[in-house]
Structure formats: structure tokens, C-alpha cells
Amino acid sequence: MSKVIKGPVFVVQDNIDTDQIIPAQYLNLIPTIAEEYEKLGSYALCGLPDSLYSERYVPEGQMDSPFPIVVAGRNFGCGSSREHAPIAMGSADCQLVLAESFARIFFRNCVATGELYPCESEERLCEILKTGDVISVDLDTCQVHVESTGKTYAIKGLGDVRSVVDAGGLFNYARQHDMISS
Amino acid sequence: MMTLTEKILARAAGKAQVKAGDNVWVKADTLMTHDVCGPGTIGVFKREFGEHARVWDKERIVIIPDHYIFTADSRSNRNVDILRDFVREQGLKYFYDVIDDPEGKWVFNPAQGLLKKQYGSQYAGVCHTALAQRGHTRPGEVLFGTDSHTCMAGAFNQFATGIGNTDAGFVMGTGKLLIKVPETMHFRLEGSLQPGVMAKDVILHIIGEIGFDGATYRAMQFDGEGARSLSVDDRMTVANMAIEAGGKNGIFEFDEKTEAYVRHRTETNGTRSEYEPVERDASENFFSEHVIDLDKLEPTVACHPDPGNRRLARELSDLGLDRAYIGSCTGGKTSDFIAFAEVIRGKSVVIDTFGVPATPEIVDELKSTMWDGTSVWQIMTDAGVQMTENAGCSACLGGPVDTFGRMNKPLKCISATNRNFPGRMGHKESQVFLASPATVAASALTGKVTDPRDL
């Protein structure tokens, strides 16, 4: 299945931890309740300090983000094991995080939930791109194309993780492959 | 030819041998969840296995409400009720409820204030500390928990790691999880801690050495004579923060201190007492080797905005503070408060200072430990520390806005907790400086970052 994700990017730097992705005060929301899942999306990345990030990922008063791709530096998603983090981003319509590296539990939670693709970039794209730049990411050829400059950059392949996210997460994948009963 | 972590995972996978990088299905010995991730885990379990599904083992799931308990936030109160309903429906053996009435509803009463206890006789406090105190940590076993600091149980020679709700829902239904065997980083501790230096300084030093992501995907194995010299509490402090370097787990060797602690706790609580520790092989494959000389360590601080931003306390004496905080799984044990009280005894704090014991048992210990006729608790409050009996996670992770000690303004706080990314303790422009209980105490007395050896 060919997969190209295209759209404007939201750029963040190193060490974006789970408190910045979804501040702890909103963890009273239960992701498996539909209404609360939606509400989590409205808070995605709202913990980023205003002094460093003047533009909000999800505009005030809205439930979804205009940025389907988040570009980040090192160690994206570090900190807590809260699955609310990839879920909040997925609920806000994020499809892909393109980071230099990921923290372990966040990466695994992206895959287990199937909320978004956690891709590693070969280069430090958070210093090359700026918020609003439009890119397309081809998960098959592992290439990023930047619309304004025409430049391309390589990303690392997702390997076995790809098909789990494609399936919509761990349980769907396991059912499709008869690993658990339907 | 295996590391401690590899040996436990091989056993749990039913294999003679595993090596770093292998993906293996392992059997869980215990699954722990709490009020923040429990309701979502239960939601995943029911969605995926069916409304009438039964958990894999009623005696191996431990549910410990501890995060957002003492708050008037109605959704947080509801989440404790969801746990209680599930425990009753499934007949789970280990649930440390906030209230005593199994048919009741939890409602926090803010009119009674934040300091006086509002929990019943079963409440256990912060999950990681409570797991150990209530006899649920056992050498050689596999513990999964829906909390990143689950790695604290590595102090007991077990494989313990944090997982998300979806993985936890899977474990809840099957008792198994597919995991990758991590590479092991070896930390050989030599010597012993000098006066004024604590276990927190050891782990802050190590994280500063390898960086905030220096152990990502890896196991951190702590051994050597220095590790053996540490108390069980100290080992918990160190293992707790493996995650702050990105580690999958931290693990200590088994010795007579581990044995005595686990025997006492399993006997007192009537929990499963048989276990089989893992011992070191003559040769192990390590990703990297590090030697830490405990004699040379000094009081250490992790500065805003990440746990790897290391400085020595004595280099920061010009840094003014607004607030001090002692508490959490890593920093709210009895030994932490004792170290704090030794520094502030007979003196007065000059900045707002908050104390949150990790568990009710610790509250009781601090009230019954007497120095010259005065309890440690009294020594703390006499010095001006605001001590709450409402043991729990409290402001370590911010929480609802009415949480005790939460930073609702952009303040600078020195804290004995474990994490200091932006917004961790509340306001997203606030700053947190991580330090040992002794350094937090010394700093509370001066209003600046202070090396406790200077007092």
C-alpha cells in the first residue's frame, strides 16, 4: 500500500516530553471514551512554552490541528508512559511525527495505538524546516520532498512497525494475522 | 553469558538464552495500573476482549490509585470509581482503594483543606513505593506498569518497565507482551557515599554523564561494592530514574538487603513469597561500561529544562529560588524525609516548602520517629514546611490545578522529585531543579541553591 503524507509541518526542537504534548492536568480524560478522545486532541502540544512557540499546534477553540506532520529534534516523546500523548496528537489529526530520534515508550505507544507514524529523519530537519512549510513524505521510498525549495531528504524506514500502524494498531494487526481471535 | 536483564527475560520467555535485540513474548508476573492510566487500560481491555471478558489472572493485577486523588476535579474522582467498579466486577485481589466502602463513591472534600488525611484504611499511596511496601516486588520477576517510573522496582533485582494503555490492555487479557530485549549498559559503583551526598546525586550524576537520552532503549545495570553499600531505599531512588535517561529498565543485583526487605514485606502482607533471583554470569555482553566512584560524588543538581542538565550544587549558589518540594516515588520515602529533617532541624525555611510523603505508612513513620521527644513530622512543620498527610503523587507531575504544591505561576522550584521538563510541576513557564532531599532542605533554608555540606 503506497503511502504519501502531505501537508504543512509544525516544527519543534529537542526533548519534547509528554507534559508538553499533553499536560498532566488533562490526563483525567479517558482516551477510550469518544467525547474525551476528541477533547484530548484540542490540547495536543498545548504544553509547549509560549515563550518558545508563539503559534499553537491546535488553534484556540478548535479541536483539530492544521498541521498533519510534526517535525522534531532528538528524544521526542520522552518522559511519561501516558498513551494520552500519541492519542492527543492523533485525535488532533496528526498523521506523522518526523523526529531525529524518539523516546522508547512514546514510539511504542504510537505503534500500539496506530495513531500516527513515528519516523526518524536522517538529517536534523527541525533546523531545516520551519512551521508552515509544506512537505510530502513518502513512506515507501523513504523520502521527504520540500515543496518550496524542491529539496529532498531521506528518512529511515519503519520496518515491521509500518504494517502495525497501517492496520490501526496492535490489536487490529494481531487479529488480521490470526495472532489473537477476532 | 547473559546480563541480569537478559536472564530474567529469557526465563519469562521460556528460553535458555536470549540476546539484546531479540523480540520475545514474555510472561508477566505482575501488571500494575493506577487512576490516570487504569480507566483507559480497562477501556482498551473491554473494547478488544469484549464487555464480559475476564482478566488473565485475578491475583496478578495490582491497582493503586495515587495520582489525582486529593482534588475536587470531578473527572479525577470518577476515575477512582471506575477502578473500583472494575475491581468488583472482576474480583481482583489487590486494590488499594481511597475509601473503605466498596459500594461508595470517592469525593474529595476541599473544605477540609489539603493537609489533613482524607483516605481510608486500604489506601497505599504512590504506586511504585506502595508496590514494594505492600509486598508486590520480587527478585527475578517481570513487572509491567502503566507508568514510566515502574522501573523503580529494578531495585529488587526484577525486570520492571513502563508501558502504555494498549499494551497494558493486552497484558490484562493475555498475561503476555512482545518485547525487545534491551542492550545493557553496565554501571559499576565503587566506594561509598560521603556525608551530604545521597543516592539522588548518584543518578543525577549518571544521567548528566550519559545524557537525557543516553540509555534510550537500554537496560541500566548497577552493581559492584558501591551498589551493595546502598540501602534498599537508595537503590529505589536510583532505579526509579533510569527512565530519565531514556532507559527501558534499571536493575540491581540481589543480596541480603533485598532478601530481608522482600521477606519482611511479603510476610507482613501475605503476598506470594516464593521467587528466584538472577545472579551475574562470569561474562556478560555490555553495550558500554561505566565506573562510578561514589567517594568522589558531590551534591548534584539537574537544572531546568531536562534531567540531564547537570551542575554541582556549589556552582549554583547565586541561583535564587521561589519554592522547595520534597515528595514523590523517588524522593518521598522515610529516609528522604529523615535526611531533609537532619538539615532543617531547629531552623526555618525562607521559601514556600512543601512535603508530600509517598505513602500513608511513611506518614505514620515520620510521626512516630522521635528525636529528643519530638517527631520528625513535628521537626518538619516547626521549620515551616507545609506537610500533608495526603500521601500521593501530588505536584510532582502538576496534576489538576487544585493539587497541593502545584506551581500555578512561573516560579523556580528545587525539588526532590524525578523530572523537570517544562511544565512538569504545573505552570509551563515554571522551572524545576532536581536535587537530593538534603540539597533541597539546605536550599529551602537559604532561598538559593545550596550545597548541604556548607551548612
Describe this entry's structure for a reader:
The complex is a heterodimer of chains A (182) and B (455). Chain A has 182 residues and is α/β, with parallel strands linked by helices. Chain A has helices at residues 18-21, 34-42, 84-91, 104-113, 161-167, 170-176, and strands spanning 4-11, 69-72, 96-99, 117-120, 134-138, 143-146, 152-154. Chain A has one domain (4-176): Aconitase, domain 4, CATH 3.20.19.10. In chain A, a hairpin with a 4-residue loop joins strand 5 and strand 6 (143-146). The relative contact order of chain A is 0.18. In chain B, 30% of the residues lie in helices and 17% in strands. Chain B folds into two domains: 4-13 and 23-178, Aconitase, domain 3 (2-Layer Sandwich); 301-454, Aconitase, domain 3. Chain B has 14 helices and 20 strands. Chain B has helices at residues 4-13, 38-49, 74-90, 127-133, 165-174, 199-210, 225-229, 232-240, 256-269, 328-331, 334-344, 360-368, 376-382, 437-446, and strands at 23-27, 30-33, 61-63, 94-95, 142-145, 159-162, 176-180, 184-190, 219-223, 249-252, 288-293, 300-302, 310-312, 323-327, 352-356, 370-371, 374-375, 386-387, 412-415, 431-434. Chain B starts with a helix and ends in a 9-residue tail after the last helix. In chain B, the strands form six sheets. Chain B has a five-stranded parallel beta sheet with strand order 4-3-2-5-6, covered by helices on one side. The interface between A and B is large, with 40 and 50 residues.
